[in-house]
Structures are given as structure tokens and as C-alpha cells.
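Friendly challenge for the regulars: who can give me the C-alpha cells for this chain first? No prize, just bragging rights.
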Amino acid sequence: MGLREVKKERTRDALAEAAVRLFQEKGYAQTTVAEIAAAAGMSTRTFFLHFPAKEDVLLAGGRPRLDLGLAVIADRRPGESIAELLTRALDAMVSDVWEKDLHSGLAAMRAQLAATEPELQARLVHRLHATQSELADALLRACPGELSPSTAATVVGAVLGAVHAAADASLRQGDPPARVRAAMLAAPGVAADLLRGTTKYVDPAHPTWGGTRHGHASE
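First reply, four minutes later:
Bragging rights claimed.
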């Protein structure tokens, strides 16, 4: 990124950190945009230059994270399979979540509030749909003639849906960051193994889980 983009990202990060702190101290509904800006040492005008509304501050890293995944897909390695390519893109995006949202508390706050705030729910659904569409389009460009548009959309939707669902469930039950990250990385494989009826699968986030037999979970 150029210097200007780095400065913008740092400003967004500072506002997001201030927002999480205030949401924890005062509650989401009781916290105003002006208070978030002041806590970050900025003006309300600066806040609105970076975020359309209060709920958007909880989605601060979405665009840069998507750009990481798009860059990986665009730089497909010679002989790399579609599965390997998507795995690399997923690893890059989850690593960014690990470094930023998980340790800052942003991811946990987002999961907690998504269950009660309709505006945030709507933003999350919109962001997930947009992310899936852009990644599917990028996959088609990187793998010409290997996928149809519907297949690309299905594959990306399945992978992102599994990762999103795993992260949400792990965060809601209060798992530490390392376990949330493990659940996210394992999610596509867990879903695929269960659908295939794998006889044995050990969840890296919960090693005591007994796996599957003929498609049914057993403990």
C-alpha cells in the first residue's frame, strides 16, 4: 500500500479500537459516533469520512482483507489446483483476521452484536454476499475454462459460508483467539468430510470430538 492508504488504514483501526472499548464499557446503543471519534482523538467529520454509520466501524477490516484474498487468487501459481489456490487465499484472509480482529476483540464484539442489531446484521449479509461475488469473479479470471460461473459461485460460497459459520459459533461460545482461528481454517475440510461420510475426523479446535461414521457425528 502507498503512504496514503497506510494512513487511512491506521485511522480506521484507531476508530475501531476506540469503538470496541466504548461498546464494552457503555454498551453499543449508548455509544455515539461523537464519543467514538473523541476517544480516538479525532473529529466526528473524520469518522464519517471513513465509515457511513456506527455499525460500519465493526467491519473496518473487510475491504483490505478481501483485497488480500483477491491478490492471492490473481497470482495463481503454475500447476496450482483450484483447491490449493482457494486454500492459500483463505489462509491469507484468516491470518489478517487473526492479527487484527481476533486479538483486538473486534470479531467477538461483532459476533455478539450481530444477534441483536438489525443494522449490523444487514451490513454483514451484504458484505458476505459482495465478498463471495468478488472472489468468485476473481476465481473465474484465474482459472479460465476450468469453472462455470455457477460452479465458481458455489465453491466460493461453500468455503466462505463454512468459515463464517465456524467463526461465529466459536466466538459466541467464548473460544480464545487461537481456537477461533483453528475452527475457521478447519471449517471447509470439516464440512466436506461430514458430507462425504468420512469415517474419522478430528477437529483441531476440539481434539476430543470423535469424528464421524457414515456421515453421522459420534462422540
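The chain has two domains: 1-54, 61-217. Residues 61-217 form a domain with the Tetracycline Repressor; domain 2 fold (CATH 1.10.357). Your move, everyone else.
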